[in-house]
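Sample A.
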Amino acid sequence: MPGNSAPGLNAPVTMLHGVGSRVAEKLKGLGIETVQDVLFHLPSRYEDRTRVAPIGSLRPGERIAIEGEIELTEVVYRRRRMMLSRLADGTGSITLRFFHFSTLQQKSLSRGTRLRCYGEVRGGPAGLEMVHPEYQRIADGEVLPTEESLTAIYPTTEGVHQLTLRKLTDQALAFIDRHTVIEELIPKALYRDNSGYTLAEALQFLHRPPPDVSLELVM
């Protein structure tokens, strides 16, 4: 763990919005107890959610964002109980397959509901499908913006979702931007030129890399 940080970074993680005692205990299992720990809990990989692809252009093996309208949602009983939703956008359709779901979730995916989904495209019995995609409902007349940076995927544990870690990281990055300066760990004299990142800039880059960056620079 990097040392010599400004005192503010040693503040307990519970100072961040959404972190109560239960979440704090789960974060502790990831080695996250302070704001600084959040900043140095680095992504293990990245996903590109900066564009939304037409469903008709999808190919198996892609991890991609799509958007469309639910045409049908049904619960079927085959080898196991599952919920299937057919999502279409005018260029094609895809099946969203859920093995774990609630009655409330089933009702929320009724015919006519618009969704943005992200997941891996797979071949299925009735064509292309996504299994347990991340999704977000779109209200009538709403236009969802696309992500401005690559989406970080963090090492996690049971009970701590990726969305939780992203929100905490956003808060921690904003915290250092507003309140404190991280003391540099590498003397400027060791930079090969004047283009070296400050530690704060490097953390911003690692957590929220721009969409056109080479992944070799962040992996």
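Sample B, a different protein:
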Amino acid sequence: GPFRANQARNTDYLLFVDPERMLRSFRINYGQPTSALPCGGWEAPDSEIRGHTTGHLLSGLALTYANTGNEAARAKGRYLVSQLAALQARAAGAGYNPGYLSAFPESYFDRMEAGQPVWSPYYMIHKYLAGMIDQYQLAGDGQALDVAVKLGDWVDWRTSRLPYAQMQMVLGYEYGGLPEALANLYAITGAERYLAA
């Protein structure tokens, strides 16, 4: 029927998307070489929200695997998780705080905390965190939980050091479903720091 046809079309598209292009901005952000062509639109190299589509892709692949058992979707998700985990492990060497994972510099958060113009960096963090949680829960990728825990620890560190008034200002910037993702991470790990964050 039409729903099955739509599911098949969506699966085909998710498998069509080039993971190297999705990883390009992340690799550049961590000083790693890449020969992949840049994406355009909101994923363009100069976009302040580059990288968020990779988070959506992680979730889409996990949902597709959970609903169809498509092994290619599972394998592609695992590849993306492994590559992002390797970049996250390079955070300190790239000049970032431990656990940071993004396709843009951590200085975007400095700008936000100073009340300067920046698009919505926590929205992107939500997409990565939610994608990793989906990969863990729906596709059984244990490495994805490790990445999520480290990123959740980074969010906890970044936000817990801010005075109340400054945190309220930060919440004036779009942050997507980050509270939900942190609550989900708490539900998985039992670590109350994520619930507090």
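Observation for Sample B: The radius of gyration is 17 Å.
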